[in-house]
Amino acid sequence: MEVIKVKNYNEMSKKAAEYIISKVRSSNRIHLGLATGGTPLGLYKYMVLDFHKNKTDYRHVTSFNLDEYVGLSEENPNSYHYYMKENLFSHINILDSNVHLPDGNGVSLQKECVQYDKLIKECGGIDVQVLGIGQNGHIGFNEPGTSFGTKTHVVKLTESTRQANKHFFNHMDEVPTHAITMGIQSIMNSREILLLASGIEKSAAMHKLLHGDLNEQFPASILQLHPNVTVIADLQSLSSQISIQDITT
Ligand SMILES: N[C@@H]1[C@@H](O)[C@H](O)[C@@H](COP(=O)(O)O)O[C@@H]1O
Description:
Blueprint: E1 2-6, H1 9-25, E2 30-34, H2 41-54, E3 61-65, E4 67-69, H3 80-87, E5 99-100, H4 109-123, E6 128-131, E7 153-156, H5 159-165, E8 178-181, H6 184-188, E9 192-197, H7 203-211, E10 229-234, H8 239-248
Parallel strand pairs: 1-10, 2-3, 2-6, 3-5, 6-9, 9-10
Antiparallel strand pairs: 4-8, 7-8
The protein binds 2-amino-2-deoxy-6-O-phosphono-alpha-D-glucopyranose.
GO biological process, one term: glucosamine catabolic process
Domain Glucosamine/galactosamine-6-phosphate isomerase: 11-225
Pathway: Amino-sugar metabolism; N-acetylneuraminate degradation; D-fructose 6-phosphate from N-acetylneuraminate: step 5/5
């Protein structure tokens, strides 16, 4: 796991954008796995700025999002469909037909999960998967205790995850209780992973990610087994590591 330390959220976002943009520019066909939440907002902002300035072409890019809430329509401003359109897709020239998110509003969620995995596989898999990390170590919406072998599945969100995401909603009651998420195995199948972390509230999770044991109670720990993970993390999110170094040097 390569860890790139940066000063703050802005630097993390800039570095992440440079990373993704260089992949997009150097390929003639690329499949990106994309994440939502607060962490990648800055990355998307810099990708949009670059699109306007440098005209990076996204017509050869296919995207697969990690997750989507169950029960929110695509027009609901809190759905991840809406989030992706607002923050990235409607500002770059990616083709609508190349954009994929799980449908959390369909009749059969189980069928949707199977189809989503099938689609990713048939396209040839994900080249670079962008990930954030939950304070409890969740990746996508794979909560602690999720089997490392899971494919795309429906999850019941923990109260702590609902709390962490409630600032996007008007009331706690509106925060969905379930989501569809790529599974841990689906994430691990990506050829490359780019994990982003910023802020003091992520420092305990980052410490466990970098130094803890492999444990299904801490889903992100599986990334220790992936051969190609790059972490871009700011000083606050690495503050547990820094204090350890300070003591030992
Ligand atoms: N489902 C999302 C994840 O994909 C995200 O990476 C994580 C961290 O969110 P944030 O970046 O807002 O801290 O939790 C959310 O619940």
